[in-house]
Amino acid sequence: MPRGRRRRTSGLRREEVAALCNMSADYYARLERERGPQPSPQMLASIAQGLHLSIDERDHLFRLAGHNPPPRGSSSEHISPGLLRVLDRLQDTPAEIVTELGETLRQTPMGVALTGDTTQYTGPARSSGYRWFTDASARDLYAPEQHAFMTRMYAAGLRGLVTLRGPDSRAAYLADLLLDSNEEFRRVRDNHEIGIRPREVLRLVN
Q1: Per-position b or e across 63-101, b if 16+ CB within 10 A of its CB
Q2: Which is the most buried residue in 4, 50, 101, 155, by most CB within 10 A?
Q3: What average pLDDT does the chain have?
Q4: Cα Rg for the chain, rounded, in angstroms?
Q5: What distance in Å separates the CA atoms of residue 158 and residue 31, rounded to the nearest whole number?
Q6: CA atoms within 13 A on the CB side of 53
Q7: What pLDDT band is residue 174 in, cutting at 50, 70 and 90?
Q8: What are the boundaries of each domain within the chain?
Q9: 23-33 residue pLDDT tens
């Protein structure tokens, strides 16, 4: 949040809070006065993230608004306040926070400069592993000699997540989509590899 003019009282202005939560100041004011519509789960998640709430505080906010809290654990997209503080200190460094499925939740400006804005994707394409098999441009960031390894790594990673999270998980949903539509994924998945991770530095093409 950029520094504004000096003020007589501490804390954020209403407009600043609204900006952090990705909503209009008018909508925030109506929520504050209990005159607005019931916030959606998506809006509540944005508020919790913008205000750097802990996961307990986030769950409390959801219950106050009449919604069940999102699931906890590795599949959760909630970023802890501590991790956000770390990212805030890395503004001059390429860095990002991603889910276990490779869905980008937050990037530093230098991270965007290096890889592009990967928070813009929606649906299955939010997953970097899904994009690897379905969007040829996803491979442009890596040197050609690394493509075969990356293909194995993404296929093995998704296989491991399906086993870990179960048949009703988002990982299983992505795997089913790729099995139905992508010959390369089917072929590499048939190798039954697990735990493929980089042992050397991956070179990016920028």
Answers
A1: eeeebebbeeeebeebbeeeebeebeeeeeebbbbbbbb
A2: 155
A3: 88
A4: 20
A5: 40
A6: 21
A7: very high
A8: 14-64, 121-206
A9: 888 888 888 88
